[in-house]
Amino acid sequence: MNRKDYCPTKPFLIILSAPSGGGKSTILGEILKENGNIDYSISYTTRAPRGEEKDGVHYFFVTEEKFKEMIDAGDFLEYALVHGNYYGTSKSYIKSRIDAGRHVIMDIDVQGANQITNSDLDIVKIFILPPDKSVLEDRLRKRGTDSDEAIKKRLTNADVELGYIKDYEYVIINDELSQAVEDVKTIISAEELTRERYSEIDTKFYRG
Fold first, then answer.
1. H-helix or E-strand containing 82?
2. Are 174 and 31 in contact (CB under 8 A)?
3. I need a surface site. Which of 115, 123, 138, 140 has the fewest CB within 10 A?
4. Is 102 helix (H, G, I), strand (E, B) or coil?
5. 64-80, pLDDT tens digit by residue?
6. pLDDT tens digit string along 148-162?
7. CA angle 29, 171, 92 (to 5 degrees)
8. How far does the chain reach from its first CA to its final CA, in angstroms?
9. What is the pTM of this model?
10. Which of 112, 100, 111 is nearest to 163 (CA)?
11. What are phi and psi of 15, to 5 degrees?
């Protein structure tokens, strides 16, 4: 019998942040593949689907009118207007997954993470870093998707993002991907074992 069958623990939101090229999206994908009790935080957007994107899988695709209704209702933990389209994280969606007993994981930049931290959600924040700045630059160049100017801008942004590390509970050095994934899994397991996340542990074990 799994330990969670004896006394389940309360699920929480897991936030992964990293400089561009830090590997947070890759790590998130590996975590989702290996952990059946974690859901991805699906964002809302007003842009049209691209390629094989599916509603409710990659994004929730909504009209601008619907998005603004959600803004007025205070449903977004964070949102932004990017190149004429809105993107946002719905509080009600995340709460629905947590209420269903599921952890939720998301990758987001430090500004967005800072906005979400001000909510009443139970959050675990993990900052992912490459071993050093030269490794980060090498990874950005190997992607082959950015100009020299864009890479310089990303490196400058990385310096700014480093200033937010103090707001995170955990830092992972992503030198080797498999180890970084294991580190995230270890953090999640440890957080599940914190006393305050056990549901009625004294009643179940000693006063039942």
1. strand 76-82
2. no
3. 138
4. coil
5. 999 999 999 999 999 99
6. 888 888 888 888 899
7. 55
8. 19
9. 0.87
10. 111
11. -110, 125
